[in-house]
Amino acid sequence: MKTFKNKVYILSLAMFMAGSSFAGVQGEDAKKLLKKGIVEVKKLERIEAKKTFTNIIENIDPKMGEAYFQRALIHKYYKEIDEAISDLRKATVLEGTEIQTKAHFELGKIFAAQQKHKEAILEFGAVLAEDPKNEEAHLLKGISNLKERKYEKAIICFNGALEINPKNEEARFEIAVAEVEMGELDSAISHLNEVIANNSNYADAYFYRGLAHYEEGISDKYKHHRKHLKSALSDFNRAIELNPSIEQAYFDRGEVKMALHDYTGAIADFKKAIEIDPKDLEAHYLKAVCNYHYGYEPQAVKELQEILEIDPDYRDAHYFLGVCLYEEERYREALKEFDNLIELENDHGDAYYYRGMVKLEFDDEEGACSDFSEAVNLKSSDAKIMSNRYCD
């Protein structure tokens, strides 16, 4: 009986050793194939490399995380994004930390490109948990936070990148972008001054500094408004000189020129913005406003009507068209525009005021007083004057 037990033990041990040896052979084969696939990628033989990595995954070692990772990169190259995401997710839970971290980083970049910034933030966070000195992960996580309007968190990330590399001008620039969005204009301008001092050809830095100066120029918090507007104009000029394709720079420069009462210059800029982006209805609208202020009322009316044909709910266009028509004594058309606007926005005080003015032209004092009363409730000072004059 004892002899039989010994034979069973020896047989079991032999089978275990054979299995271990087989697993070892499989592991060696997988590593050799992995090296082969990587060489194929370097030779730009991506289709062959993809077959090699698939062979590893399906036939030899389904737990080799790097095979999934390498195949994901090929999927990404061929824009097979769903397949790339699937392989990267596998890689994040298999094999060693280094491959897992690389997989999280690639996932973060894919999600950021897809505008899925919440998911991107999580992936870049996983990277930084293992590699806190990853400068690019700090930067990209900050940009995703910026897109999510989490400005303070974005600044923390950008400062993390700067701690690793104080010369990272993109991180400093993005801090300034966040500060502009937060209304911290002086600090933003200071950061942008540093960026421009290091790179005098950084078009976006001039653009955002111009935007900060413009916001100062139209804010009651700052004195010398014209000085700020002139600085904004200079920066937008430089941004456009460096990059003539920035549509927003023409638009914003047009707004600056409007604030400086240079309506012909503003019209030219809004025209250029519309050339770059014909669907920018706000540029169309402000161009119409400039035409009105310059004395081209019929052109302004025509442009406002064209805007409303495209977007019947464009509230500013209804309001300003109503004002233009009222001043041209086209009262019935004006009444229609104010009716339309009040239907869209029933707390628009100026719309009630002007509708009251139109009703006076039709000798409808009761209707006018009702509108003036509503306008007064909505804090329209002009309506209060008219109400005191015509109403009990």
Topology at a glance:
Layout: H1 2-42, H2 46-60, H3 65-77, H4 81-91, H5 97-113, H6 117-130, H7 135-147, H8 151-164, H9 169-182, H10 185-198, H11 203-217, H12 225-242, H13 247-259, H14 263-276, H15 281-293, H16 297-310, H17 315-327, H18 331-344, H19 349-361, H20 365-377, H21 381-390
Helix pairs in contact: 1-2, 1-3, 2-3, 3-4, 3-5, 4-5, 5-6, 5-7, 6-7, 7-8, 7-9, 8-9, 9-10, 9-11, 10-11, 11-12, 12-13, 13-14, 14-15, 15-16, 16-17, 17-18, 17-19, 18-19, 19-20, 20-21
Enumerate how many helices there are, as a single number.
21
CATH superfamily of the domain at 317-392: Tetratricopeptide repeat domain
Residue windows where pLDDT falls under 50 for at least 5 positions: 1-25
What is the tally of beta strands?
Answer: 0
The class by helix and strand makeup works out as mainly alpha
The portion of residues assigned to helices is over 70%
The chain-level mean pLDDT equals 91
Q: Cα distance, first to last residue?
A: 120 Å
CATH fold title of the domain at 317-392:
Serine Threonine Protein Phosphatase 5, Tetratricopeptide repeat
The CATH architecture of the domain at 317-392 is Alpha Horseshoe
**Beta-strand percentage?**
under 5%
Order of helices and strands: HHHHHHHHHHHHHHHHHHHHH
What is the CATH class name of the domain at 317-392?
Mainly Alpha
**Compute the gyration radius: what is it?**
33 Å
Q: What best-fitting shape do the alpha-carbon axes yield?
A: elongated
